[in-house]
Amino acid sequence: MTTKSNAPRGQTRPLGAQISHMLKSRGVDTIFGIPGVHNQEMYRGIEEAGIRHVLARHEQGAGFMADGYARATGRPGVAYVITGPGLCNIMTPLGQAYSDSVPVLAISSCLDETAAKRGQLHQMLDQEKAGATVCDWSCTANSAQAAYRLVDRALTEFQTHRPRSKHIQVPIALLEGTAEPAPATPPVARVAAQAGPDHVISTIKSAKRPLFVLGGGACGDTRAVRDVVAKLGAASFVTYAGRGLIDVSADPLHFGAYLARPDSAKTAASADCVIAVGTELADVDLWRDELGHTCDFIRVDIDPKVLAQSPQDTMLQMDATAFFHWVLAHLEGHTAATGWTTAEVEKSRAIWRAEADAERPGIVPVCDALRAVMPADTMYYSDMTQFAYTGKEVWDMDRPGHWHHPSGFGTLGYGLPAAIGGAVARPGLPTVAIAGDYGFQYTVQELGAAVELGLPLPILLWDNGKLKEIEDSMIRAQIAPNAVIAHNPDFCALARAYGAYAVAPETFAELQEEALKALKADKPTLIYMTADLSP
Ligand SMILES: Cc1ncc(C[n+]2csc(CCOP(=O)(O)OP(=O)(O)O)c2C)c(N)n1
Ligand SMILES: [Mg+2]
């Protein structure tokens, strides 16, 4: 620990404060968290550095807010938490950010000594390792220089690698001791321009029925993606994280986000070249083991671990934007004679939409009614509810990165706090939260934070009076449904108790009106919806 410094007076501060100054110098303008006696030195610097702090009501809320902020901006979402329970409480959001490739950085305090001294406040057996189970990495800084290096390493890796959650912990005495400031100049992340081998271009160009599968990792230069797909006359699917990369109203060969429909395997089997970009093709994308293709398969991903999952395919370890620019450069003068027909795409889409409607009745018309009126740049954050599962399939997006869902980890309680982080990140732009009656109660207390912040946030609450997805699953498995009905509070009264607005529209027209009104309000509005909503 540095206690002497050659820095001019006023620059030497407790390390906790220096870390906040350092983050500010690296572009961090907002930190989500909860202070305690262990990490209060990190709070000494926050106001001085000019960083806004959002006080969550639970560290889980802080973590999801940081995640929502990061998904809205592409910039790191940062959270401050205390030793022990603070870190434990934020582990769920860290696991969510890990699985969904979101740049979230949690900085916590930790005890100075754990081996020889038991029974200390907030003590746990191995906090660093606990963090490592849900993060890309979890490291302890044992000096100020190490803390600075770890922060810069995290921020650099967010830009140069697949972004995933990271955890840095700093011993309390180190946070309290004085330290020189962090190095002034942040490291510059450089991603080299890349090109793939020529045979990939010729395979793609000679295909008659090329099919793109676009995941969240393909989000970057949307125009380049659309140009490549159009110039090749390719058909396309998006994963849930890639929704909006292709606008179905402008591209009649876009199948949408229906990859999880079993029959999409037949479509994949009818392609003569599949190009999967920025997608793991994970269980939660396909809900089956295989995509279903039998042809050439080209995988493009920044993460070698994703590519290593299918070594038999053509693998390109590349940044998605670099890939699309590289392909585009080879498509000048190329005229595609597409083997796909708009009729086959339209037919499949209509069947899949009808299937989605039949599986979870009553949701599709509500989605349609809302989609018809919501502003184009609205950003949605959904929880694990049937409303979202259906919405993610049938609600076509015309731009990427505007519907965020806790896909990989599948965590209840994500919707509201993540939407708060998103709304904080995009002041003046429309943000919407979507939750089910059960999941909403995991993080309902963050209504307090949303009210405090005066966020014009509509919260679409889909109340079917139960854990309906689980009940449906039990019935399919021939288990007599149990533990799927919970006593619900009066949600509107609860929201009002927090100081939010609450409405219970009865018709689609009222719902549309209330949703638009909520986007202009001075506080969040709970919009209570049930299957009784009538057209
Ligand atoms: C932290 C966590 N615990 C448990 C689950 C399992 N789970 C998934 S959906 C669900 C029920 C959600 O009920 P509700 O929010 O009312 O949505 P609905 O399915 O009724 O639309 C449960 C318990 C989960 N995804 N996450
Ligand atoms: Mg429910």
Give a short synopsis of this structure:
Helix content is 38%, strand content 16%. It is an alpha/beta fold and 535 residues long.
Please characterize this protein's 3D structure:
This protein has 535 residues and is of the alpha/beta class. The protein contains 21 helices and 20 strands. The protein has a 6-stranded parallel sheet, sandwiched between helices. It has a 6-stranded parallel sheet with strand order 11-10-9-12-13-14. The protein is globular, with a radius of gyration of 24 Å. The termini are far apart. Residues 1-9 have low confidence and may be disordered. Bound molecules: thiamine diphosphate and magnesium ion.
What is the averaged pLDDT score? 95
What shape does the CA trace take?
A: globular
Structural class given helices, strands, pairing?
alpha/beta
Low-pLDDT segments, ≥5 res: 1-9
Bound molecules: thiamine diphosphate, magnesium ion
| Largest pleated sheet | 6 strands, parallel
End-to-end separation in angstroms reads 66 Å
β-strand number: 20
Q: Which range does the strand content fall in?
A: 15-25%
C-alpha Rg (nearest Å): 24 Å
Widest sheet: strand ordering: 3-2-4-5-7-6
User: What level of helicity do the residues show?
Assistant: 25-40%
Describe how the helices and strands are arranged.
Blueprint: E1 13-14, H1 15-25, E2 30-33, H2 40-49, E3 52-55, H3 59-73, E4 77-81, H4 85-99, E5 104-110, H5 127-132, E6 137-140, H6 144-160, E7 166-171, H7 172-176, E8 178-179, H8 198-206, E9 210-214, H9 222-232, E10 235-238, E11 254-256, H10 264-269, E12 273-277, H11 283-286, E13 296-301, H12 304-307, E14 314-317, H13 320-329, H14 342-359, H15 364-373, E15 379-382, H16 386-394, E16 403-404, H17 415-425, E17 431-436, H18 447-452, E18 458-462, H19 468-476, H20 491-497, E19 501-503, H21 508-518, E20 525-529
Parallel strand pairs: 2-3, 2-4, 4-5, 5-7, 6-7, 9-10, 9-12, 10-11, 12-13, 13-14, 15-16, 15-17, 17-18, 18-20, 19-20
Antiparallel strand pairs: 1-8
Bound molecules: thiamine diphosphate and magnesium ion.
Thiamine diphosphate binds next to α19.
